[in-house]
Amino acid sequence: MSEVDAETTVILEAPPQVKKRKTEREKVRPKTQPPYAVIVENDDFHTFDYVIEVLQKVFGYDLEKAFLLTSQVHNAGQALVWSGALELAELKRDQIRGFGPDVYAMKPVTFPLGVRIEKMPG
Questions:
Q1: For the whole model, what pTM was predicted?
Q2: CA atoms of 95 and 90, how far apart (whole Å)
C-alpha cells in the first residue's frame, strides 16, 4: 500500500433520504363519499305497470328486475331501487318525480310516484 492509501480515510455516508414524489393521481385523490339510496314508496294509486315502466326507463332495468323491485315496493311498502353518488341519486329521484302521469290507471293519477333519498350506512 502506498502512504496516501494508508492515511486516507474514506467516510461513507448514507445516501440522503429520497422522498417519493406523489403522482398527480395521489395528490388529487378525493375523499370517498358514502353512497345514497333511492327508495321508491308504495301508494294505492300508481299501477304496477307504471312503476315497472319508470324503473325500466330511469334505471335501464330489464323487465324481470323492474318487476321484482315493483313487487317489493308493493309488498314491503318501499324498496331500495338504486344506490350511488348523491348527485346521481338526486338526478334519479328527480327523473322519477318528473316521469309524468300514470296512463295505466283507471282514474287519472297525475301526482308523482313517492321517492326519497337516504344516506346509506357506511
A1: 0.75
A2: 9
Please, what is the angle between helix 63-76 and helix 48-59, to 10°? 130
Alpha helix segments (H runs only) across the chain: 3-7, 24-27, 48-59, 63-76, 86-97
What is the bridge-based pairing of β-strands 78-84 and 36-41? antiparallel
Which cell is 2 given?
502506498
Please tell me the distance from the alpha carbon of residue 76 to that of residue 74, in angstroms, as a whole number. Answer: 6
Helix (H) or strand (E) run with residue 109 in it: none
Is the Cβ–Cβ distance between 16 and 94 less than 8 Å?
no
**115 closest CA partner among 54, 30, 27, 34:** 54
User: Could you report the per-residue pLDDT of 8-55, keeping only the tens digit for each?
Assistant: 555 556 666 666 666 666 667 777 888 999 999 999 999 999 999 999
Rounded distance between C-alpha atoms, residue 92 and residue 58, angstroms: 7
Classified as helix, coil or strand, 65 is helix
Residues 91 and 18 sit within 8 Å (Cβ to Cβ):
no
